[in-house]
Amino acid sequence: MKIVIKVSGKMTKRANFLPIAEEIAELVHYGHQVIVVHGGGNEITQMLDKLGVETKFVNGLRVTTEEVLKVVEMVLCGTVNKRLVASLQEAGVSAIGISGKDGNFIEADILNPELGFVGKIRRLNTAILENILKAGYVPVVAPVGTDPFGNSLNINADTVASHIAGTVNADHLFLITDVPGIIDDKGEVIDTITLHEIEKIAKSDFITGGMIPKLEAARTSLLLGTEFVHIINWTGAGSIKNQIIHMEKGTTIRRSYTWVM
Ligand SMILES: Nc1ncnc2c1ncn2[C@@H]1O[C@H](COP(=O)(O)OP(=O)(O)OP(=O)(O)O)[C@@H](O)[C@H]1O
Ligand SMILES: [Mg+2]
Question: What average pLDDT does the segment 246-257 reach?
Fold first, then answer.
């Protein structure tokens, strides 16, 4: 099976990441092809605060000035990416960290000038991923894209994970975050929705901040060719495996309710 796992930027402290790295190692040892993508929201904010640089979000996306971009790239590609690679290696997996600039992997253009250096994906050159996987490594992707002139662009990690999952026709895309799934206006987790229902839910008042790019990511990914998208909170060993088998936790987003056997 092909499984793309987006790890929240909120759970990337090395001590926190080791247990999930161990589960990823188990999936790899069972023969699944796993691609890891990570965010870095909290750490970027902490570093910007330390440096006294102001930051704000519009519809869940960070407004990225030139100054912010330097910090984004430093934290994502330097600190967070290498820490995840180290945790995976500690768990027994050979991992290789790449950003969208390596091998010209993620080509992007400016999404909206008002957001500054935030990228919209134009093209994924997946050859580098295929080569890394073929060589028996787990790719760990930092969500930084490159424009045609080699400039960096900050891209939401859910968006990157969704394009990768769709392009490689992943069986499962996991968007692992700090909430147990999509929470509705009654405070309950929505368990299953279809591609068709995303549109309606995305317009609801209870979808704000970081959940906006997640729903868009689920939609993109299913349209490009992923089977299932899961928005879950990682709560311990077996969280991913059990979700693949039972789909009982968090929110599962599937193309339709029709099941073709
Ligand atoms: N309806 C909703 N259900 C659940 N969470 C929601 C909802 N609407 C908004 N959110 C917010 O979305 C957040 C998750 O997105 P966020 O971007 O903050 O985290 P992440 O994607 O896991 O981390 P990172 O962006 O660093 O990778 C939750 O913490 C919650 O505050
Ligand atoms: Mg996010």
Answer: 90
